[in-house]
Amino acid sequence: MILKDIYIYPIKSLGGIRLESAILEERGIQLDRRWMLVDENGNFLSQRTYPDMALIQVELSGNELVINNKKTSQRPLSIPFDDGTEELISVQIWEDTVQAQVVSEEANTWFSEALGMKCILVKMPNHVERKVNTKYAVNNESVSFADGMPFLLIGQSSLEDLNNKLSVPVPMDRFRPNFVFEGGDAFVEDKLKTIKIGASTFQIVKPCARCVMTTINQETGEKGKEPLKTLSSYRTINNKVMFGQNMVLIEGAEVRVGDTLSSI
């Protein structure tokens, strides 16, 4: 089994970026979901409620993020990695409440225009710890603004198995993984526990429950019924539709496309 793709999603629920190599941190790949959009009350925004977020693309350029809106002719927005005000606000992400740093008024204005609602761009300060659920943590890990876990792994064979059951196949971006590997049987990741990718070691801790976000076309922002409808017909466990495996980092600093993935 070989690592085929690496993805990060710097701003939660916006477009992803494919990398050739990635620096690993306890809370996830470096830059992955370190920024997030919230409403006036500090509640996180996602494509589940605002599917047009799929049309806001993020790129890396030097030491900054460059944001483009595919839906409108808005000028691109540049956000240096170290950009941030002194204002800290409480934000809510699922059951967690954490402190987050307001990035800039310019960013707030840009995203409010893009989404047609008042919103605030925040980032996670290095000193803030959002702990992984103790039920799944191995070494009391922290996580970024991801839904709950630092890393998500999916096998390409698993997607091919699903697409063989669909009338219109879907791309991997519907599932927003961090790591995609090729080789092995469909859903072989369900049977793995501790793995090595290159020289780095990960612990698989729980399957990933999927939601309506998988039904949003990442190119158009349109919402349908698939692939969740088909996936639910054969991947439902305890009333949850499972696809992919969540992981925490045990040790390691970097992974690269082409690294061998093996069970240990």
From TrEMBL:
Instruction: Report domain MOSC positions.
Output: 124-264
Task: Extract the SUPFAM superfamilies matched here.
Answer: MOSC N-terminal domain-like, PK beta-barrel domain-like
Please give the superkingdom of this protein's source.
Bacteria
The record's annotation in Pfam families points to:
MOSC, MOSC_N
Supply the name of the protein: MOSC domain-containing protein
* Species annotation: Belliella filtrata
Q: Which InterPro entries match?
A: MoCF_Sase_C, MOCOS_middle, Pyrv_Knase-like_insert_dom_sf
